[in-house]
Amino acid sequence: MEHFYQKVTFTHEEKELLVNLLKFEKIIEDKRTNKSTNKLKAEAWDRVTNKFNNNTFVTKRATIQLRRCWEKIKKHAKDDRTKEIKTRMATGGGSPCLPSQDYVPGVEEVVPHLMIEIPGTIDSNTIFESERQTETSITTTCTISTRCKTPIMSQSILQDCDQSVLRRYLDSTQTACETMNNQINEHLTSRMNIIISPEAETMEPTDTCNISSPLMPRTELPYTERRRRLASTAASEVITLRKNNILKERNEQQDLYKIRRSILEIEFQKESEMLRHLQKLNSIKEMNELEILEHQRALRKIELQRALEHAN
Fold first, then answer.
1. Does residue 228 lie in a domain region?
2. What residue numbers bound the domain in which 224 lies?
3. Most Cβ neighbours (<10 Å): which of 25, 82, 85, 202?
4. For residue 44, what are the contacts with CB-CB under 8 A and spacing of at least 6?
5. The domain boundary residue, chosen from 50, 84, 118
6. Number of domains, the chain
């Protein structure tokens, strides 16, 4: 049986109801266009149409009418956001931009990607100050918004944040260790070249020769093979001592890295649990608000019917 629906302009209350119903159908704003996804989108629009038409205070609508209305709502929200950004970034700051009459609250919860922008608190004619970062500094900022009421989106943001923070920390720690090892190896090589150099073999023999090292006092020894042996022994002791110090520092850095990583994992686990709890509370609150709205509409209809009966 064919249904003929009236072409009546959507009221603001009907638009609010449509947006509230779309909050629970996330598949509608999925960017995939394969066959299975399109089928799920069509089923979701059928459910939205049935729920919309089951309300008594609205005009019966077809699915195509609801889809066109939703596209217009998104367009008005995007236009308002663009005007707000242009006004704020104007020279001198500009006057505050008020939302238009066609704006419907809650659109940003259904399509959050329309509200993405580059944050900035300065005018367009201000010179940007360059921020310097040293190679050894590690600054990682992870902001988790508790306003996000979409469970799938918030979980993906949390997982991406966990992986990015750990990846940056691991890369910076590995780079610092490699730089330190290269500097130590270069220093030890230069010291060895100074202590045992080819120039010492071409020196003319003398009666005595002064020799000193960090592990033994300055003494006077004859220029014989014993001098080379003592110099080699002193150099090997210095190298062994420095290698032990390097290994000790490396072990300490590894222990510190493990401790910091465990702390980060504990903190992220706590934040994820808190976020899941907030999502659950928000979903319950939204369901309660929708039920209250439906009860209010039904009560208003009953009051109107009673008023008509008394008038007749």
1. yes
2. 177-254
3. 25
4. 25, 27, 28
5. 118
6. 2
Tens digit of pLDDT for each residue in 182-202?
777 776 666 555 555 544 444
In this structure, is residue 248 part of a structural domain? yes
CB atoms within 10 A of CB 5: 13
Distance from C-alpha of 264 to C-alpha of 134, rounded to nearest angstrom: 23
Spatial separation of the C-alpha atoms in residues 130 and 161, rounded to whole Å: 26
Instruction: Tell whether 99 and 189 lie within a shared domain.
Output: no
Distance between CA atoms of residues 25 and 294, nearest Å: 18
The rounded Cα 103 to chain-centroid distance in angstroms is 29
Name the token pair of 262.
């465990």
- Across the strands, what pairs with 219? 211
> What is the per-residue burial (b if ≥16 Cβ within 10 Å, else e) of 261-297?
eeebeeebeebbeebeeebeebeeebeeebeeebeeb
Instruction: Identify the burial level of 234 via C-beta atoms within 10 angstroms of its C-beta, where 0-12 means exposed, 13-18 middle and 19 or more buried.
Output: middle
pTM, two decimal places: 0.38
- Contact by Cβ (8 Å): 146, 278: yes
Q: Say whether both 20 and 113 belong to one domain.
A: yes
One-letter-per-residue 3-state SS of the chain = CCCCCCCCCCCHHHHHHHHHHHCCCHHHHCCCCCHHHHHHHHHHHHHHHHHHHCCCCCCCCCHHHHHHHHHHHHHHHHHHHHHHHHHHCCCCCCCCCCCCCCCCCCHHHHCHHHHCCCCCCCCCCCCCCCCCCCCCCCCCCCCCCCCCCCHHHHHHHHHHHHHHHHHHHHHHHHHHHHHHHHHHHHHHHHHHHHHCCHHHCCCCCCCCEEEEECCEEEEEECCCHHHHHHHHHHHHHHHHHHHHHHHHHHHHHHHHHHHHHHHHHHHHHHHHHHHHHHHHHHHHHHHHHHHHHHHHHHHHHHHHHHHHHHHC
Q: For residue 112, what are its two tokens?
A: 């959050």
Residues, the chain: 312
